Amino acid sequence: MSRAIMAERLAVEGELRSLAEKLERLLNTNARLFEENRSLKAAQEQLALERATLLAKNEQARSRVEAMITRLKAMEQNG
Q: Quick one: pLDDT at residue 58?
């Protein structure tokens, strides 16, 4: 095998190794981002549930306060 062919072969093998390393980094980045996305979606879902719970509690508190105000006004008129 001539030196030129050997040099070309080594160059191609180097390029293939470089591409393989880049592909490996890309796959690792993809896996990390996939997991991060899954985690963020789970956190978003949890926050949405907490928000709904807080809104319901807030509505209950508002209703109770309104009922107390109504009772106080009724006591004031009767008293």
A: 98
